[in-house]
């Protein structure tokens, strides 16, 4: 079990040590389950209430008094450097496992780890230090960049190109045919062949069971630094700019183009042929059916500028009083209508 | 082909035999497709209309007259004991298939069936009578309890712990990294390592292509008796109490806590950091963005108490008449305004 | 690299050649990225603006002037015959790969290609020219028709029957247990065994990571020509008529019946026990909770006839003005109320 001192924590995270620097911790815990042998991570000051004084804390500047701990501007960001120290998971050993199948016409980079049940097809090129965990399918002529990790039960179809330092989780399907059909004269559907491919940049993360379809022709493009969560679908011919983040359960319709650093929250969706600018934020459950200019935050269905949507929703909530007010007005008017020679309004 | 008598059906289900106890049935059918050699299961009395008199029926007490059948309080519950008799599917033979890979440092329980293409990694412990169907990936140090069944193309990542009598269907991903990033100074996303794990209790069922992420640190917890349908996502650090039932297409956001026996219908969703009490019911397509107290039924987006939501929706439906009523009032007022020295309102 | 002349394009697509029939193209491109060595496909006339005159175009009748190209009534439909010429992907070689496991009691049709990591179980029957790409699981007694293609990491459970010329993409789960439980006296969930199966017709396409559950008893039925996109769920005992098209992210609840040629757009959903007629169109994000008659287009949640929903949504958008109008009316009435012996309304 890894043990480090609070002094070391301060050094690694660039934080300020408070109290006993020689105190040792064996892991990280949350305010809900504080442990005296671990370091309790406190995102917000009000979480400190109720945590016993003998618990060491990683917290915001000025938040720690009378206890051991480390203070920083952004405690959550410190986890990036701190957590790897306590990761029990071990790496995968380089080499081609005896139960993997690697086609003789493929190229496997130095120190790559090809696990049991993996299939690397004819013409594929696998970079250095790539990990294919187990039961991963790599189609023909696929290219996988250095230091990329692909976890079990994922399938990468022919000709897909994946960058370096990419992480792809389990159950992902990349490069399947896009969904394109035209009605025939007999009312049946004729399939439009999907002969394009998918190109994925560097430093991309793709969550479990997400799907990315190949282009009808040309490419479906996922730029450098994009982070996709789970159960996402990127349809044929889409293009996602650098550093987009899509949280989960989000379909992006065919040929839609997202600029750089677009954020989309869970259960939102984007129709096909939509153009979205840079730095756009899409709220949870919103449905985007029109182009969105750079810098906007949108919500609702159909999605509109977020403040307009909030006002609209607030106006709907006021409707309950309107019925009552109408009734009162009508009662008054009825009571005076006869005086104006009218039976009713 | 299995054949049993109606007398036997009455005995197995604890029902009351009506008519010919020696009559033999070879299966179970629905009112839509009644067959004279099968037992027709009738959930509701009005389904009986139109079913020919020569069809044997499993129905509610008092519903069967002038035909053969078995009556009980809850016909649907009788299926639990009745259907296994007619299940054509055969069990998987114990033993490690020649095409499975089982690491030498793993432990395989007595009478476990490890199918072709399965991978059991270093340090994993597989319980007695466990079935790993085919192409199942079991990561390092995973623990699987007795009598658990894991179907094809499912991946269980390192250190995940699964209880006994659990059923996990195809395409499931358990223990993938949670989705956690912090923005760096350069606008890029830095990944927060996800070093926790997932703990799944006993008697849990997990539907096809569902995903459960490991905790950032600590555990993502699925308690005993939880039933998850298809295409569900349980994010990092969530906790689901005993006997929760989530039907399908439901994301549960990070760190949310569900009490015992929470029911969530299809396409509902739960945001992150939400606390939901016991015996809560969440209607289909509702979006839960606030904590919910025990015992409540909620619907809508944002989800609120169900009766309030129903009243709100009804008030919206009334709005169509409001425009008309406003116009009439305005017309009347305009007609009298001059008399009060006003041109208009 | 394939190269063909524009004359050949005209011949294959049945279009009219404009300009230089001897000009050679090596592929197809889109108006966003026109290339002089390819054929630019232009769906709509207004896309032609901005495409340099030296680019050859496949466009609508009458749209091409002063450049090389081919004109037809429906340029998009021409892709069905044109794109295969430029497909770089090569077929899979017939034969059983050395790393596949094929049970001795299964039958493999002539010229079938069973790829590495595939598992064909006891009693399965695989048709002629079937392709099982890699790591595909075929359960016991499964039947797969001729010319069907099943891609990597897909699992087909016992007794499922699949027709001819079916394409099933990666990560699909077919024949997993339906989601059926009854509450026990102790508050726990008792599973209703799911002993039925799934029957899939001819010419069906099933998108990546879609799931189709087996029936409780009887069959879940997908008729000829049905096209399912990605992340779709067809629950137990559903029935989809011929040529239905479901785009993506759509759950269809248990026992629902769809007629022929039902179209459902992304993120729509259908509750359980719903009956939908023929030629029904379901708009994106709508939630169907009642039966729908043939020929209707529906939208909204709960879904209703599309024009009624449009009017309803428009009436909601008008509400903002109502508050203002009510205030004005009330102000006027207050100003005259005293004259009628009333303090206020």
Description:
The structure is a homotrimer of 345-residue chains. By secondary structure, chain A is of the alpha/beta class. Chain A is built from 4 helices and 40 strands. In chain A, the strands form 7 sheets. In chain A, strands 8-11-14-17-20-25-28-31-34-37-39-40 form a 12-stranded mixed beta sheet, covered by helices on one side. A 9-stranded parallel beta sheet of chain A has the order 10-13-16-19-24-27-30-33-36, with no helix packed on it. The first copy, chain A, has an 8-stranded parallel beta sheet with strand order 9-12-15-18-21-26-29-32, with no helix packed on it. Chains A and B meet through strand 4, helix 2, strand 28, strand 31 and helix 4 of A and strand 23, helix 3 and helix 4 of B.
Keyword list:
homotrimer; 345 residues; alpha/beta; Udp-n-acetylmuramoylalanyl-d-glutamate--2,6- Diaminopimelate Ligase, Chain: A, domain 1; UDP N-Acetylglucosamine Acyltransferase, domain 1; 29% strand
Computed structural class of chain A: alpha/beta
CATH architecture term of the largest domain in chain A: 3 Solenoid
Instruction: Predict the CATH topology of the largest domain in chain A.
Output: UDP N-Acetylglucosamine Acyltransferase, domain 1
Question: Would you state the CATH class of the largest domain in chain A?
Answer: Mainly Beta
Helical amount among residues of chain A, as a percent range? 10-25%
Secondary structure tally, helices of chain A: 4
Query: How much of the sequence of chain A is in beta strands?
Result: 25-35%
Q: Largest interface, and how many residues on either side?
A: A-B, 67 and 67 residues
Integer-rounded radius of gyration of chain A: 28 Å
Number of domains of chain A: 3
CATH superfamily (homologous) name of the largest domain in chain A: Hexapeptide repeat proteins
Low-confidence stretches of chain A: none
Strand segment count of chain A? 40
